[in-house]
Design goal:
about 325 residues; Rossmann fold; globular
């Protein structure tokens, strides 16, 4: 089987990793890269053994698929020509800056009949995949995504940068529509929200409490999912999943709280994400995180932001 001809648009911090993984993927030929910073593009091209293209039009003629890792504000502008030309697209999260732009990206992909995968990386975390397989009927979900401040992605708020990962995961675990959202947050170091807390209430009675911060002292990535008579606790960083449940002991008045660890083989999420993209193209199967899924996560993220902005008005 011939290798899939792939390009990468945007080879900054994250796009660099996309290029490296495509270059070493056995089913991919990394044809070339494009970046507004030509020096950066040349450095990545030398490292991966591919070509540098001056613009996306030149790259488009040479590839069957592309990773787009550019600022969210230009997602539609960059993705449109590839989709209109019938190229498969792996687009970094969030899908767009607005629901309207995201909807247009989804429409273009649907009309072209191509794979559109949105880069919600955490869905390919081995722990998240194990958790999704074991969940039956969540009643309450508590998610914490905390990071120390770094001078990257400060052009967007913490909801688009971090919280949207957990919003996407919550939506994938609770099979119900949201009926109410409440949220609070604050800008601490930047001009955008740096810490936020959202409460999502679902029509089936389930509730999710999601907290994201990029001004914390320590890095934390955890989610706990509570069901009847048990809860599961996932550490995203360690890719470890614990199940906590009551166990009745002979003669005891109350059950003992017992913790068991689920055996998980850790994976590199970005490698798994890119491999899934390639496999979707090869098999024609829908991607795990398609355009509609990315659009729903964006819609909820923007509603969270709106609630915070409304609550902040004097």
């Amino acid at each position: 089987m011939a290798k899939l001809a792939v390009g990468v648009v945007g080879v900054g911090y994250l796009g660099h990793f996309h290029a490296l993984i495509h270059a070493r993927h056995p089913g991919v030929e990394l044809v070339g890269v494009v970046d507004t910073n030509v020096q950066t593009a040349r450095k990545v091209a030398e490292e991966t053994g591919c070509a540098v293209f001056e613009n996306i039009g030149a790259l488009l003629e040479r590839v069957e698929a592309v990773s787009i890792v550019v600022p969210t504000t230009v997602h539609l502008e960059v993705a449109r020509p590839f989709l209109q030309a019938g190229r498969h697209v792996l687009l970094e999260k969030p899908i767009a800056s607005t629901v309207g732009q995201g909807g247009e990206i989804v429409r273009l992909a649907r009309e072209a009949g191509v794979v559109l995968q949105i880069g919600h990386l955490e869905r390919f975390n081995a722990g998240v995949m194990a958790l999704a397989e074991r969940i039956e009927s969540p009643r309450f979900i508590e998610a914490h995504r905390m990071s120390p401040f770094v001078a990257r992605a400060t052009d967007v708020d913490v909801i688009s940068d971090l919280m949207i990962h957990d919003i996407d995961i919550v939506l994938s675990l609770i099979d119900s529509e949201i009926r109410h959202i409440s949220a609070v947050g604050a800008a601490v170091l930047t001009d955008h929200l740096d810490i936020a807390n959202a409460r999502l209430e679902f029509a089936n009675g389930a509730v999710a409490n999601v907290i994201a911060s990029r001004v914390s002292r320590e890095r934390m990535r955890r989610i706990r999912v509570f069901e009847h008579h048990r809860y599961q606790s996932l550490d995203f960083i360690e890719q470890s999943l614990d199940v906590v449940y009551p166990q009745q002991k002979d003669g005891a008045e109350w059950p003992e709280i017992v913790t068991g660890r689920v055996a998980i083989e850790p994976v590199k999420p970005l490698d798994a994400e890119i491999d899934a993209f390639v496999q979707s193209i090869r098999t024609g199967e829908s991607p795990l995180v398609g355009g509609e899924t990315g659009l729903r996560a964006l819609d909820v993220a923007l509603q969270v932001k709106e609630k915070i902005e409304a609550s902040s008005v004097p």
